[in-house]
Amino acid sequence: MTKQRRSSLKSTRRTLIKTVGVAGLVTTIGSSTVSAQSNDRVEWVFETENNIQTPPTIIGSNVFIGNWAGAVYAIDSATGNEIWSFQTNGSVRAAPTVVDGRVYFGSSDNNVYCLDAASGNEIWKFSTGEVLDREGVNSSPMVTGGMVLFGNRFNTDEDSGIYAIDKESGEENWTFTTSESVTASPTVVDETVFIGGQDGILNALDLDTGSRKWIFETERAIISSATVVDGTVYVGSSDNNLYAVDAETGNERWVFSTGGPVDSSPTAVDETVFVGSSDGNLYAVDAETGNEQWVFTTNDTVQSSPTVVNNTVFVGNRDKNLYAVDAESGTERWRFKTEGSIESSPTVVDGTVFVGSDDGNLYALDTNVSDSSGGSRIDLGTLGHHGNSSFLSSEMDSSEEKSVSSENEDTKEVNSSDNITPNNEEESSDSVPGFGIGTGIAAVGATSYILKSWLTADTK
C-alpha cells in the first residue's frame, strides 16, 4: 500500500527558519541560554503521526524509516520532502535494510516486506504466521548471501525464532526453532549468523543451513543486537552485563557489569566498545580487556545504540536528548532536545545526523563534524546503515546489482484504495508547487515547534 508524494507539507527546512527572520528570532528568545550554534543545528524535521524508534537507513539521497503507526517512509535527505510511504497493518519498530534497489523490513503484522526502493511498490511479502497481539517481526533484516535473515516474535512455548528467506522470491530457505521470541537483529560475519533471543541465549548459526555451531547463555533476555570485531562477539543482556565472546568457540572472554539491563546494541571503533545501559550511562569499554575507559551519565535510560564519527559518539536517550560525546574523554560536546524519548539509534551521513523520536519526528541535524558513521554496528548493517557500509560490498559481490529507477513503478499494480498515508493529505491542483496555503500553515506550525524545542533544550 504505497503513496508517492513530493511536497514540503511534511518537512521543515533550515531555509524556512531563515525566511521567517533571524532578527525576530533573536528578539524573541532574548537572554535564552540556547547558543546560536544549537539554533542553526536543525536542517529539517519530518513529521509523522507516531513514535519513530527505527534507526534510519540512508542510501544515496534517500532516508528510510518506519514508525509505530505501521508506515515506512522514503524521504529526501537534503530537503526532508516525502518521496513515498507504504502502510502495513502493524507497527514498524526496526530499521529497514536497503540492498540492490530493494527495501526489506518487518512489521508486527507478522510480515516481512520487500519493496522497490524507488517507488515503494511491494515486490513480495513473507508471513511468519497468525497475527498475535504485540507479536511479529521487530528485528531488522540482515541481507547477505542472497538471503534475508531476521528474528521472529511469537506467543507459544517454542516456534521459529529465526528465519532465512530468499531475497529475490521471498521463499523460505530455513528456520531455527527457539524457546522464546527473538527481537534482536542478526549480524553475519564469516558465514556465521550471530543473534540472541529472549531466552537469554546467543546463537551462532551456519549461514547456509541454519544449523547451530554454538550457544552462549546469559542470565536474562537478549534484546541487544550483537556486533563482531576481530573474532570477538560483543552483546548486551538484560542481566545488566556486556559480554565479549569468542566468535569461533562461544567461550567467554570477559564480562562488563553495568547498573541496569543492556538493551542498547554495542558498536566497536578503534579497540573501544561503546554501549548504553538502562542505568542511564553510556560506557566506553576496552575491547580487549573489558576495562572501563570512561562513563557518561545521562538523566534516563539509554536504549538507543551509539554511532561514532570522527571521535564523536552520538546516542539518544529517554530524557528526550540526542547527545554528542567526545569519544576519547567522555565529555559532552552538545545535546539536542526533542519532545519525546529517543530510542531510535542515530546514523550520520556527510556530517548530518538523522534520528527519530517518540514525538513522531525524524530530525536531520548538523553535527559540525565531517564524514559518516563508522563503527561495527553501521558497518555490518545490523541496525541501520548507509551506502558505505561494508556488508553491502560483500552482498553485491554475491548477486547481480539492480538499478533503482522510478520506471519500475509499473511492474506492480497498486490499488488506489490501498494508497494510505497517516495524514491522508491531498494537494490542491491549483496551488503553487512547494508553497500552497497548506504549506504556509505547516511552515508556521513547524517554526513554532522548533522554537519551542530550542527554548526547552538543555545545551552545553
Automatic annotation (TrEMBL):
Where do Basic and acidic residues bias regions lie? 399-415
**Signal peptide segment:** none
Q: Which SUPFAM superfamilies would you find in this protein's record?
A: Quinoprotein alcohol dehydrogenase-like
Boundaries of every Pyrrolo-quinoline quinone repeat domain copy: 112-215, 227-299, 302-367
Short name of one Pfam family: PQQ_2
Segments carrying the region annotation (Disordered) are: 389-437
- Quote the PANTHER family the UniProt record gives: CELL SURFACE PROTEIN (PTHR34512), OUTER MEMBRANE PROTEIN ASSEMBLY FACTOR BAMB (PTHR34512:SF30)
Provide the protein name: Outer membrane protein assembly factor BamB, contains PQQ-like beta-propeller repeat
